[in-house]
UniProtKB/TrEMBL annotation:
It catalyses: orotidine 5'-phosphate + H(+) = UMP + CO2. It comes from Leucobacter manosquensis. This is Orotidine-5'-phosphate decarboxylase. The gene is pyrF. It holds the Pfam family OMPdecase. Pathway: Pyrimidine metabolism; UMP biosynthesis via de novo pathway; UMP from orotate: step 2/2. SUPFAM superfamilies: Ribulose-phoshate binding barrel.
Length: 289
């Protein structure tokens, strides 16, 4: 069976003016604000409410798996139902799992989160390639074969990231820049000249990317690099600054917001998601919703 690539599916979201990635992060205090328990049922309630409110408004949802994993098997069962709702609503799901290992073990992470028919099948997952970009090979095969996507951590939004991600490798590139360049090169080799690639990177919106050795100049050819950008909202970055932060590598931007959307409980959730989606759309395209 031939699958539509993840990059093509992202491109369709962007063409419809959807660039918001709505986070599903069931923090304990947020669940208390929502009037539900700090348990798997509470996390499921939040996740399914976000999916219902984000459908047709956001490009994707991004469940932060840690908040489900803390409830063990009940948390994973809850997550499966959130994924089912998202699939039924036609929403892309980016599983924020940040997995990485030696290649043979990493393959099993790909099986869990990307294999068609897996109980936890998502459209894309976040991955860590600090054991070498080559460890991603099995998941990159899934990208091609199954129409899946990857977001490789490159420059993360947290202040502690600089000590590792700004470090220079033996080839002279910073760790962060190498992730960006390797993902860009993979897309160019596998996705032709245009459109949106299926392998993206995570770049924090809170950062000065130049300090991470990342060149934000326009790429003259090749597919656009998907950029999953956390840091907007609660962490302080402003969507109005997206152009200045990402420059020529921000054409395929997914602006993530989690706590800024979830704060305030289920009442007003739809309005908050619509408001943030419209602000992101306006900032990135100049088009009102
Ligand atoms: O560099 C990174 C990578 C991932 N995250 C995740 O994104 C959300 C951000 O949540 P907010 O509430 O909008 O701050 C969360 O799931 C993080 O684990 C990130 O923040 N930075």
């Amino acid at each position: 069976m031939t699958h539509r690539s993840f990059g093509d599916r992202l491109a369709a979201e962007f063409a419809a003016g959807r660039h918001l990635c709505a986070g599903i992060d069931p923090h304990g205090p947020l669940l208390a604000d929502w009037g539900v328990g700090d348990d798997a049922a509470g996390a499921e309630r939040m996740g399914r409410d976000v999916v219902a409110a984000a459908a047709g408004v956001a490009a994707c949802v991004k469940p932060q798996i840690a908040f489900f994993e803390r409830f063990g098997s009940a948390g994973f069962a809850a997550l499966e139902r959130v994924f089912e709702d998202a699939r039924a609503a036609g929403l892309l799901v980016v599983a924020d799992v940040k997995r990485g290992d030696i290649g043979s073990s990493f393959a099993a992470y790909g099986d869990a989160w990307l294999a068609p028919g897996s109980p936890l099948e998502a459209d894309a997952m976040t991955v860590v390639a600090y054991q070498g970009f080559g460890t991603l090979t099995s998941a990159l095969e899934r990208v091609e074969r199954d129409g899946k996507g990857l977001f490789v951590l490159a420059a993360t939004s947290n202040a502690e990231a600089a000590e590792v991600q700004q470090a220079r490798r033996a080839d002279g590139r910073s760790v962060a820049a190498a992730m960006v360049e390797d993902a860009t090169a993979w897309n160019a080799a596998h996705g032709g000249e245009g459109g949106v690639g299926s392998v993206g990177v995570v770049l924090g919106a809170t950062l000065d990317l130049a300090a991470f050795g990342i060149d934000t100049a326009e790429r003259p050819t090749g597919p656009s690099l998907p950029v999953l950008a956390p840091g907007f909202g609660h962490q302080g970055a402003r969507i109005e600054a997206a152009g200045a932060i990402f420059g020529g590598i921000g054409h395929a931007l997914l602006a993530n917001e989690s706590r800024s959307i979830l704060n305030g409980g289920p009442n007003g959730l739809s309005e908050r998601i619509r408001e943030r989606a419209a602000a992101v759309r306006f900032a990135l395209s100049g088009e009102p919703a």
